[in-house]
Amino acid sequence: GFKVLASASHYWPLEDVDGIHEFRDTNGDIVEGMVNKGIYVTEKKGVTFLFFGSYQNSCISNPEVCGPEGVTFSFFWKTQDQQAKFLPASGGQVISSGFKICSNEGEGSVEFYTRGNAMMKWKASFSPPGPYWTHILFTWKSREGLKVYVNGTLNTTDPDGKVFYDYGDPSANLLTGTEEDQTKRYVNGAFDEFIIWERALTPNEIEQYFTAAIGVQVLLSSTLPWSVMTTTTKPVLSTNAYRPIITNLTEERGNFRSPDTMLGYLENVSFSLPNKSLSENTALSLTEAFLKAVEDFLLLPNWIDVPETAHIFGSLIQTIDSVMAHMTHNLDENSLPLTVEGTTSVADYTLVKIHPQTLNLSHYRFPYRGQSYISIPSEAFHDKAWITIVGLLYHNMHYFFHNINPMDTKIAEAAAYKGYMISATSYLISVKVEPLPKLSHNLSGSPLITIQLTHKLTPRQYSQALNKSNRVHLYCAFLDYSNGTGVWSNEGCVRESGDLNYSVCLCNHLTNFAILMQVVPLKLTREHQVALSSITYIGCALSIFCLTITLVTFAILSSVSTIRNQRYHIHANLSFAVLVAQILLLTSFQFSPGTVPCKILAILLHFFFLSAFAWMLVEGFHLYSMVIKVFGSEESKHLYYYGIGWGCPLVICVISTTSSLDSYGESGNCWLSLENGAIWAFVAPALFVILVNIGILIAVTRVISRISADNYKVHGDANAFK
């Protein structure tokens, strides 16, 4: 690790900070300032921590100059102001013409820029540091993109970047710190050990440097956080070591409003756990307090507006796993075998530390009852070593993994249906075992993990699954953290059996599992598409032709007194509504869903098809008034009829468009959406018309039948009765 540091291109140790082992050289060309004060730069923007000057035509200021070896930036960072620790770390930043590092509103980010022939931007986000020293390092290579490491571990990446044309001043100096603004209160930050390598370090070199940077001397410092304490010795039992963390978890409840800020706090808790043994009661108290904090996170009012929800909850689950595994590993060995288990609103959990010889069952199952569980064959456990088992069955976590882009997963079968989103459709269940169980590499061999999960379909998912025009794909998936962030994958898992209500999976590894569902509409073959298209065009064209002849006939014969009545007006309006609807229908096939013309046509189609049904209702009312009960004068009925035929559809369309405009012409065709209930704005009125007209038909038929029967009795004419 020291050799990695010695190979740096530029190194500024800054001032001594307790716990950071310092190397000093004569090459640091920087004037040092006080922590939280920094160096005053003579410009209106005010105070900065560091002023690096301008490195013209160097890899620092212009990444285009970087060769294929790339570049690495490294520093330690923490929030220094204890009084403002609940505020988001706004404004703390490191900025140059080639890159920008900042924390704002609870999110840390690195942005990297190249200019010249390739105007590109790479951006990767991470949880910003809290009041503890956190090591931030990022590498960039033209072929690999941006990689951000936090405390020596790969945290997030942006391998591709995107074209970007507008970023600041290309001649900016390299600055670190915050702008001074009297109207705002910034959380003050501290930086230390700023280093630049004009090459991209390897992951192994990064881990070596981080280990060396925190150093053995860290163990002698009482002021450093537990997150940077490392030791290989057996943990020492301390009943009080975890008490401050449990107290802090309780006191901090309700103090967070931003999901990113609270996730950063929970991650800091996981980093801060001391490497000391804990009793069963302490483990139970810490688990309950931590899961209560997780419950607060799930209940935050504004998390749903946060982009990349699945990514955030993937990080949350990784943090929970880390805390639970730490506690299980450090359970007091004087009390073994030991089991800590319980139920909270977040999850059912179990922490087990036992010797495999005490497992007298053919399988270890978690949870031991219920329809959703993980089962591990006893032959998979190592015979001699103590084993630790962490089990979690989350109650509501699956709701937050919805609308996952299949291209953002490692599920090849799902990626084949690009554009059709994936959602978790079962509980999330997790079991971690150390040492790792001995499982078959081949999914057709044994032993293997058996996972049974009951499906938890939402009403929408259930209706989609039952729709015969859809194909439902169910995947046995897990969160893969091999790249630093949780990505859904199905590698090493196969769905052995199940139906729409449950799934049984076989896997050759352990982690967080869930059943993912993807609904894909069945696509017609080319032959069927041609056949249906031909029927539609021929049928609609014939309908339009006949309706046109009908309207022309009415127009020509309108001078004849025998048809100058209300029946003529009703027939003509009905024919006109159907004619326009058919023309609009054929026109709509020429436009793609989601476009403005398609949306307009969808609204017009809704109106004219509703009008067709409304005029059919008028036909029924008119027949009723002629045969059964005469009501109103000719003029008053005229107004009623036009109000029903054109007014009612207009009112329904206006209400529908104002309340759910996004439901028109968005999915599949230029019509109402079938997904969110908007189609009922057409179906409900149409069903009403059909039911009313059936009632009128029955009533009219009964009257005519009675009259015809009477005529038959009087005249004996069977044809009249028929």
In short:
The protein is built from 14 helices and 30 strands. It has 722 residues and is α+β, with helices and mostly antiparallel strands.
Task: Note the main attributes of this structure.
722 residues, alpha+beta, 8-stranded antiparallel beta sheet, 7-stranded antiparallel beta sheet, 34% helix, Adhesion G-protein coupled receptor D1
Overview of this structure, please?
- The protein is an alpha+beta fold.
- The protein is built from 14 helices and 30 strands.
- Strands 18, 19, 22, 23, 24, 26, 27 and 30 form an eight-stranded antiparallel β-sheet that branches.
- α5 (280-298) packs antiparallel against α6 (309-329) and α11 (596-627) runs parallel beside α13.
Which helices and strands appear, and what pairs or packs with what?
Blueprint: H1 2-6, E1 10-12, E2 39-40, E3 47-48, E4 50-51, E5 71-79, E6 93-95, E7 99-104, E8 107-114, E9 120-126, E10 134-141, E11 145-150, E12 153-158, E13 162-163, E14 175-177, E15 189-197, H2 203-214, E16 236-237, H3 243-251, H4 259-271, E17 276-277, H5 280-298, H6 309-329, E18 338-343, E19 347-354, E20 363-366, E21 373-377, E22 387-394, H7 412-415, E23 422-424, E24 429-434, E25 449-454, H8 459-466, E26 470-480, E27 487-489, E28 493-498, E29 502-507, E30 512-521, H9 526-556, H10 566-588, H11 596-627, H12 634-659, H13 680-715, H14 718-721
Parallel strand pairs: 16-17
Antiparallel strand pairs: 1-15, 2-3, 4-14, 5-10, 5-15, 6-7, 6-14, 7-8, 8-9, 9-13, 10-11, 11-12, 18-19, 19-22, 20-21, 21-25, 22-24, 23-30, 24-30, 25-29, 26-27, 26-30, 28-29
Helix pairs in contact: 3-5, 4-5, 4-6, 5-6, 9-10, 10-11, 10-12, 11-12, 11-13
